[in-house]
């Protein structure tokens, strides 16, 4: 219970309140103690002198009766005579007026001041003045009537402070509960997320830091749900793309083992097995390539080279494929441009784009590339007159294993990783790749790269 944030907030508040109130009380008391004592002493001195002067004028018959009348006005008084007798007037404690030494000092003509280091709300505060009537010497000690009320004031002050602590604590309990409740709710939802439940969203309608935390939590939950969905799709797609060629290889291998076929048919089966093996090899290589690109430790080896020459060389290496389909290649807009980048990675980009265009461009179509330099950027536009794709498929074209349904023909089947690799390579080079495509009209990739990654 003590380990909860709610209990910690409450205990912290109580500790802070107790320390602050106690400290404030003693600081305030010490700040005004000397001033109060000085003012009380001055007032008592003036009053005592006034009593003495008035007695000289009035010449009372009885000193005791005179002092008794004076004490009824405002002060508590103690009158000490030379013979050791003492008489007290008022309500003050008789033991707190003066010590025998202080009495002897005043009887000898001295003046007693308030010297107590710890007045304790002036309980011991008194002044003493020498007093002589008809040749008899007295020691006159005075205390203010206020002394009797200071204890009550102290109790009132303590009661007020105690009530402040209690009321503040009760109010803070509700405040702490107000703050702790959404955190408890977030904790409960965190446990659900840890158990794989990514569908629910936490509802905390607040605009403070806790509200921002709830929004961030919902965003994280949504991203985790997307990642989990992608993971499942990835496993499903990998299983499908691995299973299909493996079943084909297994089937033809078993057929060759169990039956005798003519040489021509055997060669046909072996060609299929070889093709499916190559397909598995490409899938494995692409998966490793994509995994390496997604790794934060994957290095980007920069070197300075001519991009236009690289693009022309890639087209030259695929010449048999585009000549076979009589595709028109237009590289006239490829200008001489140099840049600093990872040469091998960008070569993979042009290979993947060209292979994709050749695969989905009909016989006699056209593939066109333009390359130009604008300020500190390099722009490559790669377009073809192929079969294109529907508008609804364009946003997903860079997702792993995504393939447009129209392209799912046995002659045009791929792994669905080529464009994902393109996107990842461009990202690690701090560039952008955009696509525009229309069904039966063709596809255009626009790639923007910085001249240097530094």
Task: Note down, in words, how this protein is organized.
The chain has 454 residues and is α+β, with helices and mostly antiparallel strands. It folds into three domains: 5-151, Beta-Lactamase (2-Layer Sandwich), CATH 3.30.450; 209-291, Signal transduction histidine kinase, dimerisation/phosphotransfer (DHp) domain (Helix Hairpins, Orthogonal Bundle); 300-450, Histidine kinase-like ATPase, C-terminal domain (Heat Shock Protein 90, 2-Layer Sandwich), CATH 3.30.565.10. It is built from ten helices and eleven strands. It has helices spanning 5-58, 63-71, 100-107, 147-194, 209-258, 263-294, 307-317, 319-324, 343-360, 418-428, and strands at 75-81, 86-89, 127-133, 136-144, 303-306, 328-334, 338-341, 366-374, 377-384, 432-438, 442-450. The strands form three sheets. The protein has a five-stranded mixed beta sheet, covered by helices on one side. Strands 2-1-4-3 form a four-stranded antiparallel beta sheet, sandwiched between helices. A hairpin with a 3-residue loop joins strand 10 (432-438) and strand 11. Helix 4 (147-194) runs parallel beside helix 5, helix 6 runs parallel beside helix 10 and helix 7 (307-317) packs across helix 9 (343-360). The chain is rod-shaped. 20% of the residues are buried. The model is unreliable at 405-412 (pLDDT under 50).
């Amino acid at each position: 219970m003590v380990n909860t944030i709610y209990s910690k907030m409450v205990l912290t508040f109580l500790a802070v309140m107790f320390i602050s109130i106690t400290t404030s009380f003693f600081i305030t008391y010490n700040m005004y103690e000397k001033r109060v004592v000085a003012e009380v002493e001055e007032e008592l001195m003036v009053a005592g002198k006034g009593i003495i002067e008035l007695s000289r004028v009035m010449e009372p018959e009885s000193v005791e009766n005179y002092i008794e009348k004076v004490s009824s006005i405002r002060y508590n008084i103690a009158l000490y005579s030379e013979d050791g007798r003492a008489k007290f007037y008022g309500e003050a404690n008789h033991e707190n007026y003066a010590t025998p030494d202080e009495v002897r000092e005043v009887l000898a003509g001295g003046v007693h001041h308030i010297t107590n280091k710890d007045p304790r709300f002036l309980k011991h505060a008194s002044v003493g003045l020498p007093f002589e009537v008809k040749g008899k010497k007295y020691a006159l000690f005075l205390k203010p009537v206020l002394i009797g009320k200071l204890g009550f004031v102290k109790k009132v002050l303590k009661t007020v402070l105690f009530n402040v602590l209690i009321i503040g604590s009760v109010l803070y309990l509700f405040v702490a509960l107000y703050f702790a409740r959404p955190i408890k709710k977030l904790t409960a939802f965190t446990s659900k997320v840890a158990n794989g439940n990514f569908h629910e969203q936490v509802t905390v309608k607040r605009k403070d830091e806790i509200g921002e935390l709830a929004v961030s939590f919902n965003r994280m939950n949504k991203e985790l749900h997307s990642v989990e969905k992608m993971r499942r799709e990835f496993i499903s797609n990998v299983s499908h793309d691995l299973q299909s060629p493996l079943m084909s290889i297994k089937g033809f291998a078993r057929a060759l083992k169990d039956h005798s076929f003519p040489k021509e048919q055997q060669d046909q089966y072996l060609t299929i097995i070889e093709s499916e093996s190559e397909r598995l090899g490409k899938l494995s290589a692409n998966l490793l390539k994509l995994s390496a690109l997604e790794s934060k430790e994957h290095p980007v080896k920069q070197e300075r080279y001519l991009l236009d020459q690289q693009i022309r060389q890639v087209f030259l290496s695929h010449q048999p494929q585009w000549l076979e389909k009589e595709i028109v290649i237009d590289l006239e807009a490829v200008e001489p441009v140099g840049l600093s980048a990872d040469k091998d990675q960008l070569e993979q980009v042009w290979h993947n784009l060209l292979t994709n265009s050749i695969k989905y461009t009909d016989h006699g179509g056209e593939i066109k590339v333009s390359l130009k330099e604008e300020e500190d950027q390099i722009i490559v536009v790669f377009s073809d007159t192929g079969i294109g794709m529907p508008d609804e498929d364009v946003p997903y074209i860079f997702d792993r294993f995504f393939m447009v349904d129209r392209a799912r023909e046995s002659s045009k089947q791929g792994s669905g990783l080529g464009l994902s690799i393109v996107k990842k390579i461009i990202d690690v080079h701090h560039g952008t790749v955009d696509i525009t495509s229309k069904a039966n009209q063709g596809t255009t990739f626009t790639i923007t790269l910085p001249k240097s990654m530094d």
